């Protein structure tokens, strides 16, 4: 290798390193800024349930977390299966699903805020 070839090799290597650091850094920042709900978790976010439909196995406990500044509820449409009452910012509600089927629910404060739990 000539001196210029070595210099070019060093330049390419360090450029690749810098690119790698930038890409991994950007990836970390994005996931930190926008946390996503876990597999048995639903967020109340932007006056909506996220995800609006969740499918789980029998006897799974689902946790709802309110990411909004305003209160929400997690209330089963049948009025008896589950009802959280008001959940403030950062508050959570859990319910264990011990029967199979489709369980539609809503927020009693926001009429357009609906979700469904499907238990297999
Ligand atoms: Cu609500």
Describe the overall structure.
The protein is α/β, with parallel strands linked by helices and 120 residues long. The chain has two domains: 1-34; 41-119, Cupredoxins -  blue copper proteins (Immunoglobulin-like). Helices cover 26% and strands 31% of the residues. The chain contains one helix and eight strands. The protein has one helix spanning 3-33; strands at 41-44, 49-50, 53-56, 60-66, 75-76, 92-97, 101-106, 114-119. It has a four-stranded mixed β-sheet with strand order 2-1-4-6, with no helix packed on it. It is globular. It starts with a helix and ends with a strand. Residues 15-23 and 27-31 have low confidence and may be disordered. The protein binds copper (II) ion. Copper (II) ion (CU) binds next to loops.
């Amino acid at each position: 290798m000539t001196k210029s070839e070595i210099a070019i090799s060093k330049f390419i290597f360090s450029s690749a390193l810098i690119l790698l650091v930038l890409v991994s850094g950007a990836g970390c920042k994005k996931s930190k800024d926008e946390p996503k709900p876990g597999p048995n978790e639903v967020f109340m976010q932007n006056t909506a349930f996220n995800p609006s439909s969740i499918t789980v196995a029998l006897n799974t406990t689902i946790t709802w977390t309110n990411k909004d500044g305003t209160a929400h509820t997690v209330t089963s449409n049948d009025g008896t299966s589950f009802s959280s009452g008001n959940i403030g910012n950062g508050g959570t509600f859990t319910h264990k699903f011990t029967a199979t089927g489709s369980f539609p629910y809503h927020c009693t404060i926001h009429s357009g805020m609906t979700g469904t739990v499907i238990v297999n």
